[in-house]
Amino acid sequence: MGAPLKTYREKMAQTSKEAIISVVALAIVVIAWIIFGFGLSAFDIRIAETPLWAIMGTIGTWVVAIIICIVLGFGVFKNFSLDDEESEDAAENNSTSPDGGELR
Amino acid sequence: MSFDALLGFAPLLIFMAVAVCMSIVIRRHTEHSGKGFLSEYFIGNRSLGGFVLAMTTVATYGSVSSFVGGPGQAWDYGFGWVYMATCQVTALFLLYGILGKRMALIARKINAVTIVDVIRARFQSNAVATLSALVIVVFFIATMVAQFVGGARLFEAVTGYSYVAGLLLFGILAIVFTTIGGFRGVAFTDALCGIVMLIGLVILAGGIITAGGGWENIMVAIETNHPEMMEPGAGGDMPWTLYFTQWLLVGVFTFCLPQSVVRTMSYDTTKAVHRAMLIGTIVLGFMMIAATTLGVISAGILPGSLEDYGNSVDNIIPRAIVASLPPVLGGIAIIGPIAASISTVSSLLIVASSSIIKDIYITWRTDHGHEVAERPIAWGSQIITLVIGVIVLVLSIVPPDVIWRINMFAFGGLETAFCWVLVFGLFWKRANKYGAMLSMAGGTLAYCISMALGFTAFGMHQITIGISVSFILMIIGSLATKAPDVKAFAAFFPEKEKA
Q1: Assigned CATH topology for domain B3-404
Q2: Do B274 and A79 touch (CB under 8 A)?
Q3: A99 pLDDT tier (thresholds 50, 70, 90)
């Protein structure tokens, strides 16, 4: 899991990584959607008289998205405090925050 | 009033009473919290947990057209429409994954209450901020009218009461509980609406499947009467361009809709946002897939042509409710779409109100050297919420003919205006106020003009034009002008610590 993120800069860098990972996750869902839907529509397979492509293209894609959310939210994405610990620490140490404190 | 009509009406009344009581309780609970009014009223003091965050985002996103228009189209096109609607399962992880934590960190750092606050701080420009606020107000009013119109038409079709009676009933309710409860009230009533939407879907599914003689019978009937409904291309009626543009319009770019983005500033911990991502994807996926599938299986109990159902696909779900459910269950099923309408309106109303009072009025006053006291702001915010709500209600009583189509139009307009301003603003240091202004104004203008003229690129929805123009103008506008001073917005791009 690595060391906990402490500084504002580290946390912001982590959000950039997570944004890129989310775009990759989108690509995975799109690929799954195409294979499950358009791909399987080439086969005449039915479950309860319902075309398999219709089940997999919808419910299958949804399940893939849910799995991605589990993997990202409980494995890949990091937890950290959203409050400005850095400024609090800086105040405690009576020193200046490296990114110049709050903008107004 | 007949007994049946009363039965059909009772569940809606109970739901509305619960929603108003909830707002009042939340208001009383937060009144003496001791925290600033603006932060509480417009952002709920950044204290939402995972479940409420997920449900408020889903309920804001799921509008009356998700329950009426979309399923109506699915009745016409078949499973291809459900397949296309599935693109919406990406909405939550894109919103929270791309913008979620970054917006939350920045909003806390700069003490932002609205997304316009964030845009103003990033681009150091009142002009860009004011334009953002105006775009929000204009497109939101159009969307809210469309929601009210959709909800009231559904009410009229199912209960038999007049359109105006329905509109006044749930319109006034939505305005009242938004005005009283503020953002936190909206978030909690959204959660209630979301739960009710799910219950409505399950009840209607049970009704249609039973009335159609079981799932398999319905499938066989559809296969026999309309075999093209079983193909992803719907017999040639759903080309790849339609799929592609719907992916952009209701899938990929929804993460930058202001009414969704504001929610990334309202939660308390990263654990909450991770949980919301999962719960939201489960609920939204179920809602969208189930709602549009209901449209498909309605073809099993409504086998006629469109002319038989008033020449509008919007009549399909109301007819399916009436044809498949007894009055009291129909009364419960109708709460789903009406709750979808109410929850979208309330969320838009609170953001539109914050745009006027916080982003335009307070900024203007402080720029002119006037102090703005807390008490008048509190009153002003509630009065503005009330006034916008009443304007929307009045516009909905005699809606312009085009208003129903404006819903999707506004969706695309907001995405065009905000997508690159937010993405480049948050992730590209070089983006400056000129690029932002050009991107927002030029992209929105290109989108609106191409919509008005009916001009398309390769037959695709005009979102492709708007979003491309907006992208190009952001790049050109930023690179062709002076680079911004990054120190002026250090909260967005913090410098390396000096040794």
Answers
A1: Sodium/glucose cotransporter (1.20.1730)
A2: yes
A3: very low
